Amino acid sequence: MDDSPTVLGGLGLRLSRLLEQWSSQVASLRDGGGTVYLPYDFSDQCTAWLRVSSSDGQTAKVQAEWSLIEGWGIYPSDYLSTAPAVADFDPIAGAQVVYSLIDLAARIDANLATLEATAPLSCLC
After folding, report:
1. Which residues, other chains included, contact 44 with Cβ-Cβ below 8 Å and sequence gap of 6+?
2. Per-residue b or e along 45-59, where b marks 16 or more CB atoms closer than 10 Å to that residue's CB
């Protein structure tokens, strides 16, 4: 669980922060392309990431992949310092799609809005 001291509130607010970072990173690709890494699974001994690559700032290839970076060492609400260290990808077969960056950003923002509408959620762990 995310017990980061930088994000107060319940689980809903912390998950909102995760999607805010996703949104920001995807938006940065519209300025000429590049590659960003979006975590979505924080398992004990590994993490799963979406590698989002754009060569033209308009279209993105999204590939799901595993990394041996341990999930317990990352705060989902503040993962940006870890993302550049992801270098040991193991692609998940068949887990690749191509989206327009505008559509991808819209889907992330829609999920963020839905999550924020349900916040604050408390963790009963």
Report:
1. 70, 71, 72
2. eebbbbbbebeeeeb
Q: What is the pLDDT along the chain (125 residues), one digit of tens a residue?
A: 555 555 556 666 778 888 999 999 999 999 889 999 999 999 989 999 999 999 999 999 999 999 999 998 888 888 888 888 888 988 889 999 999 999 999 999 999 988 877 765 444 44
If one counts every other C-beta atom within 10 angstroms of the C-beta of residue 83, the result is: 16
Beta carbons of 67 and 88 less than 8 angstroms apart: yes
For residues 77 and 14, give the distance between their C-alpha atoms in angstroms, rounded to a whole number. 5
Q: Tokens 């950003």 belong to which residue?
A: 105
Tell me how far apart the alpha carbons of residues 3 and 75 are, in angstroms, rounded to a whole number: 7
Tokens representing 23 are 């949104």
Gap between the Cα atoms of 2 and 74, Å rounded: 8
- Predicted TM-score (pTM) of the model is 0.84
- Distances from the Cα of 21 to the Cα of 39, 48, 80, 93, angstroms: 10, 16, 8, 26
